[in-house]
Structure prediction request, 145 residues.
Amino acid sequence: MGRIWKTTFVDIAVETGAYAIGDALGSKNSFVRVPEHGYIVGAVLQDRDSEKAPIDIVIFDNADIGGTADNAAFAPTDGELGSACGVIRISEYFTFSNNSIGVANGFKIPYWAKAGSLYFQCQIQAVHSYTAIDDVLIALYLEIT
Prediction:
């Protein structure tokens, strides 16, 4: 087993309003200054308003993507799918008095980020309305070999 490295948290900039199942949640984003290659072994989501919606994080390695506009049907191109390395679903949350943390682990997704960035976009998996903007942040745990 290699050493574990955590990315910085990235704010996915959700907006207030209703999202439908399959909508893009926030716009395209990236984890920067990541080690060139390794495995994605976990993800953590800060839910500062305790919304607790199930979210898929679609990860693209080794290529930037155009992305889908926030709150539009998530629609990666066929070419973008060619650089997808995996999908992480956050559906388990630990709730506190006024916020929660969503976690996913128990997987090992290989990635190669020759430019030092892993691009991603989120897709919501439930009809949901957010009550506050900028209250969803995500970080990844990487195993570096």
